[in-house]
Structure formats: C-alpha cells, structure tokens
Amino acid sequence: MTFFALTGLMIATVLASFKHIGPADTDVYNNLLAMFIAIVKATLVVLFFMHGKYSTTLTKLWILIGFSWFPLMSLILMDYGVRRFEALPSWSPQSESALPRNLDRDMNLDEEHKVNIHQRIGARGN
To answer: Total structural domains in the chain?
Structure first.
C-alpha cells in the first residue's frame, strides 16, 4: 500500500513539474506544491519504512525533533541569502615589514631594537 502511495506521489511530482500553477511571472505555487508532495512522501517513508508509526514514544520524539530541526536550520541559513555583502578593502602593506604598521611607534623602541626586530622578520620571510 505504501509503495503505491509513494509511486502515485512520484507521478504527481513529475506531472506537477510540467504544469505551471499560479501567476505567469512566479514559480512560488509550483514550489509549494512540490514541497507539499515531498513532505507527504517523507512522512510516509518515516512512518512505514522506518517503522516510526509502531515505535516507542521516545523514538517518535526523536523523529519529531529531526523533522523540526530541518525547518529551523533552513530558516537560520536563509539569513545568509538576504544579507547584503559588503566589500572589504584589500590589505596592502605600506612597507615590506610583516610588523603591524604602527608597532615601532607603539612599542617605543629605540633604533637598535627596531633594526633587530626587522632583521629577524626579514630572515624568516626569505
């Protein structure tokens, strides 16, 4: 019985993909219909093939948590789809040193220590 229901829903999915539903400029209704059919098929698979219908209460709870987690994760990840990406300025060093730009000034180093630090960094970079 479940096999025939899944086969019928598969045929309904294929037929729905060839038929446009709703306004001509949008596919929202087609997507909603396809998602509805997919949810019904997934429910049948979980209930009968995975024996969720005849399981213990704890197993049913985990099945419910699993089905609840997917829409929640989808909503969380949809945030990235609506964010505006800001261009970051490229990093272009002002000197050949790997030190931060104002480290010499911020550390109040004398000339001997500055030269020593720059030489060590230069030796590592080569």
So the answer is: 2
Q: Is the domain of 100 the same as that of 76?
A: no
pTM for this prediction: 0.54
Is 87 within the bounds of a domain? Answer: no
Q: What gap in Å lies between CA 50 and CA 61, rounded to an integer?
A: 14
Determine what percent of the chain is predicted with pLDDT higher than 90. Answer: 33
Co-location of 66 and 102 in the same domain:
no
